[in-house]
Design brief:
224 residues; binds S-adenosylmethionine; alpha/beta; 9 helices; methyltransferase activity; Rossmann fold; eight-stranded mixed beta sheet
Length: 224
């Protein structure tokens, strides 16, 4: 049976779109939990495509409530993870869910926007971000900011649903910028990334607001 999202139709498409962009308060917390179900496959597949190596310093942009951080940490030894998100409630939730990893120094979270990252130049071996591209305010400047905090030879992975898919969902009329693969590849190219490649991974069906969708995730990577 398909996974379900917004099963009881509590939120209008406009309200849901607002909380997907920036979850706030109790409703935002609930939307965060729904994302853990609806985005499970794209989040877990993004970490597989990222394929971190032992001791890598990893940055995630817009990790939401950080539910999948535990799965990323299992993918190699001695990973160091930093997550940033501009939603206060998501930082709170991610901190609660990952308390043990934070105490042991493997994980940290900061409330910040992709526009100005609170990290030094060349701080990370890889950067991953899932389902955030639609909300980047200045895509080329934002991609350059990611390039700044990557080490030379470091990898950026962007995981997203394509424009063709997103256009089927009413909520994407409200504040989403939609991209097809060539748009994302051009964005990375113009921002200074090299060796840009994309792949698609199919997922089980998803029941979204009572309608069943064939699902697939797109994964575009670029190297500094
Ligand atoms: C749709 S959710 C995706 C969460 C998770 N990555 C997933 O796929 O389930 C988008 C997340 O990105 C965050 N976000 C959106 N725009 C951002 C920005 N400019 N800077 C930092 N975080 C941002 C939101 O607060 C939210 O937690």
């Amino acid at each position: 049976m398909a996974e379900k999202f917004n099963e009881d139709n509590k939120l209008t498409p406009k309200e849901l779109a607002k909380h997907l962009r920036q979850p706030e308060g109790e409703i935002g917390k609930e939307v965060g939990l729904q994302m853990n179900k609806g985005n499970k496959h794209i989040c877990l597949n993004s970490y597989k495509v990222l394929n971190p190596k032992n001791k890598d310093y990893i940055l995630e942009i817009g990790m939401g409530n950080g539910f999948f951080v535990k799965d990323l940490l299992k993918m190699a030894d001695n990973l160091n993870y930093s997550g940033i998100d501009f939603s206060h409630i998501m930082i709170n939730e991610a901190t609660i869910k990952n308390k043990e990893f934070i105490t042991s120094g493997k994980v940290s979270f900061k409330q910040a926007s992709i526009e100005k990252l609170p990290f030094n130049d060349g701080a990370f071996d890889c950067i991953t971000t899932t389902n955030t591209l639609y909300f980047w305010p200045q895509p080329q400047d934002n991609a350059k900011e990611l390039l700044r905090v990557l080490k030379p030879g470091g990898k950026l992975l962007i995981a997203y649903r394509t424009k063709d898919f997103m256009e089927q969902l009413e909520l994407t009329k409200y504040g989403f910028t939609k991209y097809n693969v060539t748009d994302v590849e051009n964005l990375l190219n113009l921002s200074g990334f090299k060796q840009i490649t994309s792949q698609m991974i199919k997922e089980p069906e998803l029941d979204f607001d009572g309608k069943v969708f064939e699902m697939e995730g797109m994964y575009t990577t670029g190297i500094k």
